[in-house]
Amino acid sequence: MEKKAIFLDVDGTLVANHGKMTEQVKKAITLARNQGHKVFICTGRNKIGIRNELEEVNFDGFIASAGSYIEVADEVVHSRYYDRKLIEKACDVFNRNNIVYNYECTDITYMSPKMMEFFVGGNNEEATNSEMERLKAEQSDKFNVRDMNEYDGRGIHKISFIAMKQEDFDHAFKELKENFNFVVHDMFGSKNINGEIMSKLDNKGTGIKRIVDYLNIDMEDTIGFGDSMNDYEMIDAVKCGVVMDNGSARLKEIADRICKSVDEDGVYYEFIDLGII
Question: Which is one Pfam family of this protein (predicted)?
Answer without folding.
Answer: Hydrolase_3
